[in-house]
């Protein structure tokens, strides 16, 4: 089906998220975990959240200081990646731009790209995130600049967090710990 597996070195688990978005069977909820990271939520609690019509079950947000932008640019991304992301949001998905500006100065974000979300919201999230992310990736590809450093996976975390922040008042969000498997 429709996929971006040829970009996996930059997109990592986000290649799977894209595939699920484009090809997955539509159920009420869509969830994503990793081979060594997952939500620590019991079947009973999951059932309870679904009965309450929870929109999103997410990892507990991570605290970053002095700001989200500083954290990502210092550790995972080039400054240019961040500026390109902000410019792309402004041009491609402008309704999210003010939220993005507020987010970059903030301290909390949703790490690791694992969640369980109502599929209608999952589709909306993917439309926003991949709408921006593929524009950025195409910018680099058109300049024959090959990254292979998971930059798109990190940008996905940022864009996903912007989406959740932007729609938080419309969503019913629950949180669960994240567990690691060795």
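^ structure tokens above, recovered residues below v
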């Amino acid at each position: 089906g429709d996929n971006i597996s040829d970009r996996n070195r930059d997109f990592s688990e986000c290649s799977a998220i894209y595939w699920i978005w484009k090809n997955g069977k539509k159920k009420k909820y869509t969830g994503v975990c990793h081979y060594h990271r997952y939500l620590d939520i019991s079947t009973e609690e999951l059932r309870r959240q679904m009965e309450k019509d929870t929109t999103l079950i997410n990892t507990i947000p991570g605290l970053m200081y002095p700001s989200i932008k500083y954290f990502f640019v210092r550790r995972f991304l080039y400054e240019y990646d961040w500026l390109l992301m902000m410019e792309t949001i402004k041009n491609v998905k402008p309704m999210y731009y003010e939220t993005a500006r507020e987010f970059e100065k903030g301290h909390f974000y949703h790490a690791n790209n694992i969640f369980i979300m109502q599929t209608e919201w999952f589709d909306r999230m993917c439309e926003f995130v991949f709408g921006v992310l593929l524009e950025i990736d195409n910018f680099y590809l058109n300049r024959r600049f090959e990254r292979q450093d998971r930059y798109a996976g990190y940008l996905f975390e940022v864009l996903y967090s912007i989406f959740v922040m932007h729609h938080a008042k419309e969503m019913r969000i629950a949180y669960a710990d994240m567990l690691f498997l060795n």
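The helical segments are 8-11, 13-23, 43-51, 68-75, 79-92, 97-105, 119-142, 151-167.
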